[in-house]
Amino acid sequence: MTFHLNLSLMTPGHFRTAWRLPHADPLAYVDIDHYRRLARIAEEAKIDAVFLGDSPALRGEIEDAPGTGLDPLVLLGHLAAITTHLGVIATSSTTYNSPYNLARRFQSLDHVTRGRAAVNVVTTGSPAAAANFGLAEHPPKGDRYRRAHEFLEVVTRLWDSWDPGAIVADKRGGRYADPDLIHRIDHVGEFFSVAGPLPVTAGPQGRPVIVQAGGSAEGLALAGRFADVVFTVAQTQAKAVAFRDDIRVRAAGAGRHPDDVKVSLGVVVLVAETEAQARRREEELYATLPIERLSAALVANLGLPPDRFGPDDPITVADLPDRVPESAFSAGFSASTRALIADGPRTPRELVQRGAGGSGHRLLVGSAEQVADDLQAWYEAGAADGFTVMPADTAVDFENFARLVVPILQERGLFQTGYRHPTLRGRLLARLTEGALS
């Protein structure tokens, strides 16, 4: 049985300071030719989809590194137009969008891509976003997740508002559609009042794929109810296996089959032809990091006073608060980091480096063979249904992974050698139910 592979387009890389390296173009994150090249490399390697994270606000880190940059829907719509099979996963906020507009945009994207569209729904952790949308303050976490549940209920009902066969297209009789098969949703709830229906029938997938990335209890409940794919973080195999088991139980609890939801484990990859080359590049990337700032941010994300621990001061389990703090920027990243500390004291410097410069995702460094071995081991342990590969330095690691690692995975029967279904949803579901795609 094969696993899925998505590749992140985040530029300059998931080491956000990779722009400082001699070969890097500091403006690549807004260069369409850069992204066009990556999309073609991904499709040539038969990658399932490309993914782009986003935040609706410019964060303070701009002093050190580029922000998220181009609007994902605009960029990925263009990349879908120059490819034939590659799926596109665009991040959108349920806190700072309206459900009708989002439903229409992604239904439209699904039509124009012929069934390759996915939305990665987030509730937005950055308080800076509020001021961009006329709000006095960022809504509390509980409110954001209640809104997200209602938001996705509205979106999915809008996507289902046209029954099959609604378009009659009777040229002789002059009847285009059967209004009885097109339904208003007439939703009235805590956050939204939406009549519907959408002005367009369901796309080739039926619905665009829903990806969800929250690791908190609220996020997991949302994923169990709505997600087709859950994007997650884990620093240990045991935690990853437990997460996947938990999300499958939650899906069943929401009345779904456990196989209806897939887990895509994020992993930051730094790969070269030899381990020695990869380790040299690793040290070069470490040297670009503003370690004092990143250490302070990590300590704060753990719920500890930032001035209490310097980069080289060990943090023990006894130092940690009992629970992940409400103020944590990402509950999933915070919990993953806490799991590392549970195995033994760690300094902020070690945690920042192991978390790929502060992203919190596991950093995987090595030769192509070593990277392939690692992904195979985690998959066979039941840690995930596939992986979202996050290049450490996108200018180098995106292509290195596609052209060095993917062929090894294909030779082992772990990854597809050809696209066997025209839609992204069809490929993901087929891989769950039909076994290996080769």
What is the radius of gyration?
Answer: 22 Å
Strands of the widest sheet, in order across it, are 1-2-3-4-9-10-11-13
- The SSE order reads EHEHEHEHEEEEEHEHEHHHHEHEHH
Q: How many distinct helices? A: 13
Helix % is 25-40%
Number of E strands = 13
What is the residue-mean pLDDT, rounded to a whole number? 92
Structural class estimated from helices and strands: alpha/beta
**Any low-confidence stretches, pLDDT <50, length ≥5?**
432-438
Which band does the percent of strand residues land in?
5-15%
**Assembly state:** single chain
Task: Give the overall form.
Answer: globular
Could you give the distance between the termini?
Answer: 10 Å
Secondary structure elements and their pairing?
Elements: E1 4-8, H1 32-44, E2 49-52, H2 72-81, E3 87-93, H3 99-112, E4 117-122, H4 141-159, E5 167-170, E6 175-177, E7 187-188, E8 193-194, E9 209-212, H5 217-226, E10 229-232, H6 237-253, E11 262-272, H7 275-286, H8 291-301, H9 331-342, H10 348-354, E12 362-367, H11 368-380, E13 386-391, H12 394-411, H13 424-433
Helix pairs in contact: 1-12, 3-4, 4-5, 5-6, 8-10, 11-12
Write structural notes for this entry.
The protein has helices spanning 32-44, 72-81, 99-112, 141-159, 217-226, 237-253, 275-286, 291-301, 331-342, 348-354, 368-380, 394-411, 424-433, and strands at residues 4-8, 49-52, 87-93, 117-122, 167-170, 175-177, 187-188, 193-194, 209-212, 229-232, 262-272, 362-367, 386-391. With 438 residues, the chain is α/β, with parallel strands linked by helices. The strands form 3 sheets. Strands 1-2-3-4-9-10-11-13 form an 8-stranded parallel beta barrel, surrounded by 9 helices. The protein has a two-stranded antiparallel sheet with strand order 5-6. Strands 7-8 form a two-stranded antiparallel ribbon. Helix 3 links the parallel strand 3 (87-93) and strand 4. It starts with a strand and ends in a 5-residue tail after the last helix.
